[in-house]
Amino acid sequence: TSATRVPPPAELRAAALRALRACGVPEEALQARAGAAGLPAVTCLNGEELLRLPAAGAGDVERVVAAADEAFRTWRTTPAPVRGGLVKRLGRLLAERKEDLADLVALEAGKIRSEALGEVQEMVDVCDFAVGLSRQLYGRTMPSERPGHRLMETWHPLGVVGVISAFNFPVAVWSWNTAIALVCGDAVVWKPSEKTPLTALACSALLARAIADTAAPQGLHGLLLGDRAVGEALVDSPRVALVSATGSTRMGREVGPRVAARFGRSLLELGGNNAAVVAPSADLDLATRAIVFAAAGTAGQRCTTLRRLIVHTSVAEPLLERLVAAYRRLPIGSPLDPAVLVGPLVDASSGDRFDEALRRARAAGGEVLAGGGRREVEGAPGGCYVEPAIVRMPAQADVVREETFAPILYVLTYEGFEEAIALHNDVPQGLSSGIFTADQREAERFLAADGSDCGIVNVNIGTSGAEIGGAFGGEKETGGGRESGSDAWKAYMRRATNTVNSSGQLLLAQDVTFL
Ligand code: UN1
Predict the structure, then answer these.
(1) DSSP 449-477
(2) Among 185, 186, 184, 182, CA closest to 203
(3) CA 161, CA 224: separation in Å to the nearest integer?
(4) Ligand 1 atom nearest residue 246's Cα
(5) pLDDT tens digits, 308-367
(6) How far apart are the two ends of the chain, measured CA to CA in Å?
(7) Substitution candidate for ligand 1 out of 126, 129, 302, 467 with most atoms within 8 A of CB
(8) Does the interface predicted TM-score (ipTM) exceed 0.95?
(9) 168 lines ligand 1 (CB under 6 A)
(10) Measured from the CB, is residue 304 less than 6 Å from ligand 1?
(11) What predicted TM-score, i.e. pTM, was given to this entire model?
């Protein structure tokens, strides 16, 4: 048992309502109509329903998409730096309401304070990034092979972007997509996870306020709180030019082909099975801290969570000793308690998957070195609190090659560096990776074309907690999409290649003669 206690349901409900109202969520959005089914807003702290919200049905999707499409017609010709003005305002409002938004993230996703605040900070940061981008969005000019001709490219707004986001980063991932899409001249329709409707309402209300304050077109952002059928209608809507979906590989396998069938674009950010290699020269104290945050932080519910450790046999014992000691000290409990580092899993079925993965790992010869049990937390009989686990595996069994969205760190050992790289890459997913080493040759090799096959490859830092300035996403079953920084904006625009003839003569390319 733990010393921490979850406050009573009435107190949590009051905290949620206070934060929602502070963010400007209208009262009618907080109360399902009498008789209507509604969408339950649940807190994972105790598994209790906080509110019952009005829910959208599949039939509402076309109306919201049509409004977004109409707003897009105006927005696409609004100068990009003016579009940046909207995102600048949004960033301000998000920063002003940072504490309230973090309250909602904590209640819905179960994050500890510093991680909940960190998630809100990601939104503010990506808004800054997008504002800068609004004066860039560079196209290139190329030398034409013909005299008196100019060859160039222009990036144009794409259309309506459908954003499907997951519970674990309920607001940051929305902001990566939305801030960038808005400066790119697109409109956004958001289908958040059913597990996190309150954070979505709060962000949506702040963006509505920013839209009003900057006199941007009304329908520019639409929110659809609803079930799977709503997501499907959004995916199939012919007016949605880009579907940006974050979630499981199973979800992506359905979304990708459906969007492709109508020649829409998709940007997929799916499962990860992230590993770190710990080489003989690694700084073990630094590695231990990095590993514990990456593997046990956010209760193992980041797509970048460290799930596999590939350790050189010579350092396995001292490293595992440090890790087991750190895991034994991990404070687990209510994320509202400032001393706690590990909050709850999002729901009971996540807990079942945690148990089942551990059962399979043991059956495959795994030895549980730390954690693996459940914790009762006072005031939260309906919450799902688990002890982050470290499991030493004799081989990369099937269960290790799957993503279980819970805090289980599988440990494998290696002798030769090639073996470490082979083990590292021998999983279906390719999101994030890291190596701990002081040997520059090993670090460079890990970063090279025949090193890690992931979209994110780090040296002496864990797999999670990426900055927004880089492009975020991964390869293989992770889906290939890139969001957030660098040139990820290009996915949200369409490129036109232009040839302009000022020569007064008709000259055909490739020296072709005709007429
Ligand atoms: C996710 O889990 O979907 O790199 C996103 C990180 C965070 C984002 C994770 N900045 O861990």
Answers:
(1) TTS--SSEEEESS-SS---TTSEE--EET
(2) 182
(3) 13
(4) 3
(5) 999 999 999 999 999 999 999 999 999 999 999 999 999 999 999 999 999 999 999 999
(6) 88
(7) 302
(8) yes
(9) yes
(10) yes
(11) 0.97
